[in-house]
Design goal:
The protein is built from 17 helices and eleven strands. With 343 residues, it is mainly α. It folds into four domains: 119 residues, Orthogonal Bundle (Arc Repressor Mutant, subunit A); 63 residues; 65 residues, Orthogonal Bundle (Arc Repressor Mutant, subunit A), CATH 1.10.10; 61 residues, Arc Repressor Mutant, subunit A, CATH 1.10.10. A three-stranded antiparallel beta sheet has the order 1-3-2. A hairpin with a 4-residue loop joins strand 10 and strand 11. The longest helix is centred in the middle third of the chain and has 19 residues.
C-alpha cells in the first residue's frame, strides 16, 4: 500500500481534545513507542475505574468522528480495500505493519479501533491469534473454515507447499493467494516449517519434540537407512537444535531403540518402520519370511528377502537359516519351519 503518515494524521485528529483524553489515547494505543496499555492498567494509573476510562475514551472517539468525517472516510475506504484483498481479515501484527509500516502501528491501531463500525478486532482463542476483520460474525465464519481446513490437512496426512495446499483445497474454500495467507497466519494449529512446508502444529515435521522427532525428520529428508552417528551429524547440520546445542550419538541410539517408528536394521543402523521394515532378530525375520511364503523355499530366495530387511552379510543369514532348532531343509535343499515353530 501507499505509505501514509498516520502519525501526522493522529496529531491532526486528536487536536482539540482535552489533555486527559489525549493522554488516555496515547496510553491506550501505545503512542509513540507501541507499548499499548489496557483499560485496567490506565485506570489504576489514573486512580479511576476501567469503566470510567472507557467512557472518557468514548467521548474522545465521538469528538474525532464528528469533526473529521471526510478524513476518516478516505482512510477507512483504503483500509477496506486492503482487507478485501486479504479475504476480509488479517493477523493483527501483519495488518498493522502492512497498513502503516512498523513505526506507525500505534496510529493504525487507533484508526482501526476508531472505525469499529467497519472493522472488528477478534480476540485470540485456542485455535487462532488476534486478527482484524471486515466480515460479519468473523469469529464464527473464520473459525468454521479453519476447523474444516485443519481436518482436511489431517486427513491428507502429508506436508504441503502453499501451491499444493491451494491445488488440493483452494476450490473448496474459494481461496485466493491473499485469503489463504490470512488463514495460515492466524491459525495456531496450521504452521509452516523451516523448509516452507505446511502441516499441523503437532506433527514432528512441523515442530519436532526431542531427539526422536528430529531423527524422524532426518529420515524423511534422506529416505534411506542411516547409522545413528550419521543421524546425529545430520540433526546438527540441519539446525534442528537450539543455537550452540549439540546432539550426542549415544542419546540418539538410546532414543531410537525405544521408539517403534524406528527399526534397527544393521549394526547401529536404523530405518523407518513405515518403509516396511519390521523389528526382530535375523532368526525372527527368517521365520516371518517362511510364514509369509506359506511353503518351503530355496536358500537364495530366503536370503534375498532377509537382506531386504537387514543390512547384514549374506553368511550371517545363512548361519541363522541353518539353525536346526528352528529351521529344517528337505532333500531338495528347500527350507521350512520346524513343526514347533508353526504351532
Amino acid at each position: 500500500m501507499t505509505q501514509v503518515n498516520y502519525s501526522q494524521i493522529y496529531t491532526k485528529l486528536t487536536k482539540g481534545l482535552s489533555p486527559r483524553i489525549k493522554n488516555i489515547f496515547d496510553k491506550r494505543f501505545g503512542v509513540p513507542l507501541g507499548n499499548a496499555e489496557t483499560l485496567d492498567a490506565i485506570g489504576k494509573r489514573m486512580g479511576i475505574t476501567r469503566e470510567r476510562v472507557r467512557q472518557i475514551e468514548e467521548v474522545g472517539f465521538n469528538f474525532v468522528k464528528k469533526n473529521h468525517k471526510e478524513t476518516l472516510e478516505k482512510i477507512f475506504k483504503d483500509f477496506n480495500s486492503y482487507f478485501e484483498t486479504k479475504g476480509g481479515f488479517k493477523l493483527e501484527e501483519v495488518a498493522l505493519a502492512d497498513l502503516g509500516g512498523q513505526k506507525q502501528k500505534p496510529y493504525v491501531l487507533f484508526l482501526l479501533t476508531l472505525g469499529r463500525d467497519n472493522f472488528s478486532r477478534i480476540a485470540a482463542k485456542k485455535d487462532y491469534h488476534y486478527f482484524w476483520s471486515t466480515i460479519q460474525d468473523a469469529d464464527k465464519a473464520v473459525n468454521t473454515t479453519l476447523s474444516s481446513l485443519v481436518l482436511d490437512i489431517k486427513n491428507h496426512g502429508n506436508l504441503l507447499t502453499k501451491n499444493e495446499l491451494m491445488a488440493h483445497f483452494g476450490a473448496k474454500y474459494n481461496f485466493n493467494e491473499g485469503s489463504l495467507a490470512s488463514y495460515l497466519e492466524i491459525s495456531k494449529r496450521i504452521q509452516e516449517n523451516k523448509e516452507g512446508k505446511i502441516g499441523l502444529f503437532n506433527w514432528p515435521e512441523i515442530k519436532p519434540r526431542g531427539v526422536k522427532d528430529k531423527a524422524f525428520l532426518v529420515f524423511k529428508k534422506h529416505q534411506k537407512p542411516l547409522h545413528f552417528r550419521k543421524i546425529t551429524e545430520l540433526i546438527d547440520e540441519l539446525e534442528y537444535n537450539a543455537v550452540g546445542k549439540k546432539t550426542h550419538p549415544q542419546t540418539v541410539h538410546n532414543e531410537l531403540i525405544k521408539d517403534q517408528r524406528f527399526v534397527l536394521v544393521g549394526r547401529g543402523t536404523y530405518a523407518l518402520a513405515e518403509w516396511g521394515y519390521v523389528p526382530g532378530t535375523i532368526k525372527d525375520i527368517i521365520t516371518n519370511v517362511l510364514k509369509e511364503k506359506k511353503e518351503i523355499a530355496l536358500q537364495d530366495d530366503i536370503v534375498k528377502a532377509v537382506l531386504a530387511q537387514r543390512l547384514v552379510a549374506k553368511n550371517t543369514v545363512i548361519i541363522n537359516l541353518n539353525n536346526k532348532k528352528y529351521f529344517q531343509k528337505d532333500s531338495d535343499g528347500k527350507y521350512f519351519l520346524r513343526e514347533t515353530e508353526t504351532v
